[in-house]
Amino acid sequence: MSKTKGRLIGELFERNKRDLLGCLTRRVGHEDAFDLLQETFMRLMRRREIEPIVDEDAYLRTTAINLARDLSRHRKSMAKHVAPGDIPTEIAEAGLDPSQICEAKESVRLYYAALTGLPPKCQEVFILRRFHDLSPDEIAHRLGISRNMVLKHLRLALERCHAALD
Predict the structure, then answer these.
(1) Are 137 and 147 in contact (CB under 8 A)?
(2) What are the CA-CA distances from residue 156 to residues 69, 114, 128, 153, 163 (Å)?
(3) Are the CB atoms for 164 and 115 separated by under 8 Å?
(4) What integer pLDDT is reported at residue 72 of this predicted model?
(5) CA 133 to chain CA centroid, nearest Å
(6) Predicted confidence (pLDDT) per residue in 97-134, tens digit
(7) Strand (E) or helix (H) holding 9
(8) Cβ(37)–Cβ(60) below 8 Å
């Protein structure tokens, strides 16, 4: 990245961070807003299109809003696959006693909390791998990221899930 582009992005960040952070906080909550703010500017930095951006502030706001929508979609997708309080069919059919069912429910709750606490891209990679059974190469191609990045996201997701259940 050239010094000129870096300086421009720094100026845009200083001019827009408060507004974008407020917008993102209202849409996704305080905890995820910072990650989405960072991703908004990362997308601007990685942008390779030749034509110039006419209104940088509007471009950033639109990018931030789209990222917030993506996060909401990921959360809904996550909720379809794992809901707190659900007992996996294998456990329900095993005829376990109430204390074991209670432990299973708590494990599901902790697992769900760990998954929803992941960064949006990490959640997406995890869902595509675990619930849609896509290979790391397929995920990388679909999301436009490297295979190594897919593996890093999977490693983080698994570490967080294991830590939550320990």
Answers:
(1) yes
(2) 23, 11, 15, 5, 10
(3) no
(4) 82
(5) 18
(6) 677 767 777 777 777 777 878 888 888 888 888 888 88
(7) helix 3-28
(8) no
Contact indicator for 111, 165 with CB cutoff of 8 Å: yes
Q: Quick one: pLDDT at residue 87?
A: 53
* 147-165 and 120-130 helices, crossing angle to 10°: 90
Residue % of the chain over a pLDDT of 90: 14
Structure tokens that stand for 148 in this block: 């190594």
- Compute CA distances 85 → 78, 105, 113, 163, whole Å: 14, 5, 12, 19
Q: Which residue, among 4, 15, 26, has the nearest Cα to 56 in the 3D structure?
A: 15
Tokens of 90: 């294998």
> For residue 138, what are the CA distances in angstroms to 58, 126, 149?
33, 13, 13
98: its two tokens: 């109430």
Residues ≥6 apart with Cβ < 8 Å to 159: none
Degrees, nearest 5: CA angle 33-65-3:
75
